[in-house]
Fold:
Amino acid sequence: MQRNDRGHYTVPTAGLYPFQWNWDSALSALGFAHFDEARALTEIETLFAHQWPDGMVPHIIFHQPDDGYFPGPDVWGTDRPVPTSGITQPPVAGFALARICNRARDTGPVIERARALLPRIHAWHQWFFRTRDPEGTGLVAIIHPWESGRDNSVDWDDAFSRVPTEGVAPFKRRDITHANPAHRPTDAQYTRFIYLVQLFRSLGWDNARLHDASSFRMVDPGFNAILLRSCADLADLADALGEGEIARQSRAFAQRGIAAMEHLWNPALDQYACFDRVAGQLVDSPSIGGLLAAFCAIPPERARAVAGRIARLGTQARFMVPSHDPTRPEFDGKRYWRGPVWLIVNYMIADGLAAAGEHEVAQRIQTDSIRLIEESGFAEYYDPLTAEPCGGGSFTWTAAMVIEILNTRRVPA
Ligand code: DGY
Structure:
């Protein structure tokens, strides 16, 4: 983590990701907080210093020029004082800030800085419900796979095949000069990633228009669970800080959203699934997005079912939790979000399951996470069958999760 620290922000890993990423930073702050609370808060404050006037917090902040990454600021064209991307990422900051405050050793300064962050995080949550849930369903849509963080999930395959590719300017990928191309999204996926960026740019990054204009609108249970958990935790923090109106609104977002999550339960898969807002149907894809739903306060019988589903996946993979069901033909144990295990998602699922009383499965997930590090170091992600380290190395949030797990859970030897 210290090697990737650039002073007021942290890069996920040098080379492959040379800027500040939104959910990487918030989750990394949890790790920093164990040895430097002030530095942990700086990470989140830097992120929010680049919040857009409409409340959106961008997924990348391009603090310094670096040719080693594509797409850079010239492709996004967002016209910000410090260039940023124009889309967002899973809103873990509310959860992370609340947890850092709850555990603070140096309470005074932490609470003071949290007080300043609170309305900014709340504004981001309001932005989500205003611009990504225009019909008031209680759940928000992502409009680009990069927003989910699960860039090339099988969940998007059908919807993504409807995204056109005409008019995409020629480009040169940089990711595959840093990481094994077999671990990364395909060229065909990249062409569509860039199509959507160009489309949104042509609309002036006007969030009042982007949701309806996008041919990709997906209600992801994992993404929504993160948002709803952050709303619920921010409500508790706001109460503790005497910010009653933020608490009331945040709690209302969480309650309404958790009730709406029931529409994403797919009995055929025995787990939650994405809802394709353009096609108007649940997606037949047993991915980790539907298991990450357990990060928010879903009903106990649903948490039980998610735990059962993970326990069954545990008979097919050596390491929990594969990002896609290994029995499905699309499963690919090394390719980014089509099979590999990610420690950040493990951490969030285990946290939610433990809160729901599903301790056995939660413990197995934590133990597997540490076994992966022991076998394969601090990789970006891991093959769930072989533990092979995949993607980038020396990864900040993987290290942060290890610090977090070792300090907060009992992991049997
Ligand atoms: C990437 O470049 O791979 C990122 O996931 C996009 O944010």
Summary: The chain has one domain: 20-405. The chain has 16 helices and nine strands.
